[in-house]
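Lab notes, practical 5.
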Amino acid sequence: MKRDPHIFTPQQPVKHSSSWWNDVIVLITVAVLIYVGARLALNTPAVIEGPTISLNPSALPFYASLSLRRMLIAYVLSFLFTIVYGYIAAYNRSAEHILIPLLDVLQSVPILSFLPVVLLSLIAFLPQRLAVELASIILIFTSQVWNMTFAWYQSLKTIPTELHEASTIFRLNGWMRFKTLELPFAAISLIWNSMMSWAGGWFFLMAAEIFTAGQRNFSLPGLGSYLKEAANQGDLTAMILGIVTLVLIIVVLDQLAWRPLLTWADRFKLEMVESRMSPTSWFYDALHSSRIINWLSQKTFYPTIEKFDEITLHRFPMTEQSRMAKVNLKWILYFLIMAGILVLFYGAYLTGQMLLTVPLAQWKNILSGLIATLLRVLIALIIALLWTLPVGVSIGSNARLTARLQPIMQIIASVPATALFPIFVVILLGLPGGLNLAAILLMLMGTQWYLLFNVIAGTTAIPQDLKDAATMLQLNRWTRWRTLILPSLFPYIITGAITSAGGAWNASIVAEYIEFGGKTLSINGIGALISEATASGDYPLLLASTLSMILTVSIINRFVWRRLYRIAAERYRLE
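Output from the prediction step:
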């Protein structure tokens, strides 16, 4: 009997209906919110002096603790948002048609450019210190949440049908389904994307703690502001001390959090045969063998979980389907849309009035800038795919290599490239197309890690029995890639690519408009236009260029990424 070498058998595609009205409503809503922020920003003081940031090494521990606190708050909010948002989008078709387009738009909003407007609008009705803290957490939140949400949504959409059927046979309620099926199935992807989220938060730390809008200067004491001040003053010693502190925090988090979590999550791999090399963690082993921890678990943790299970089973008896899956949000969503339709139309009218004040010449600049930035984003994405795919598969296939390189990758991904970017600009300016190369390099430095971490997560999640089957069938390298590796990684690649592309568009704000040494360098691009409008306080141009970027990214998401997501959910799930 001839063996079929194809490990995955694509399913017949299922047709989905999606209305353009959903995208239009979402875009109008975002446009109105941006307009409101711009109008509020006009009423704030024209000049605001920022606080003094000390470069004394003794201030570093305190600054580091403040930054760590902001990162932790943003991550907790990101995780909660991810679970709720992704769950509703994955299991409710009516909600999915609204929430996924909204997610596409939100992850494409260039928050680096519009954060000062958000901050100024918050200052209009909140104390300045509280407004600055909230704005900082919002920026860190937006650098962490989107890839986690996409990863959770992708995992829920690709749970094997037989596992869903088993949970239905056992009549699990929503909580038990979440606890025993959904969260374990998505654990590996969520942990790797959480690491990437923290790396992204560290990457944008300087922008989160120091930002300006015209003559308004806002700063928060923290590790990011320390690095930014050291770069501004050219204090190499302070920069080295700040980066060393950041590296130490990353290493400690890797040893005490991420590596133990990866070791724990390895038990949830969908496989019939145990992996040859599983991830290890000395801290996990220490906790697992600790008598005190075991005693506390037996006396407090497990009884608490069991009690919570009993409460949920009593309040929400086991049914044939998850209650969340049965909740029909269609009419609720339509009611909310209809209730706010007049407000949206009025806001759209005011937004249109502001956009009409933008001269035709600036609209031409916006169009040419969009094309230029799109080409840079495409080049950065192709370069990232070319190296992250083979390297990520090599790392993810070797547990020892993963354990050794994981903290190194986190450190490299977390170093705020904006602090070192002027050095690269000086080096590359002498080359042909130097500033263009520098812009692509900065986009690459800020986005390639989303792809790499997702490829590694996808590789580590490939079941060992499928690897053994490929070995037994004596598949050559190309056939193994075509029939096992690439189909297994396809959902992870799409998740990494969409967040990488969104990050590249966001990074264009700082990659195409550079200020250092009292000089300003810029190239043609939508990011440069947004930065110039922010620096000069030209809010009509800022609104027009920001909405143009959002619209462009939303169109790409609809015609490219959303269709690829559909293919991943329908054809490349493990069955």
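Observations recorded by the TA: The longest strand covers residues 215-219. The two ends are 23 Å apart (CA to CA).
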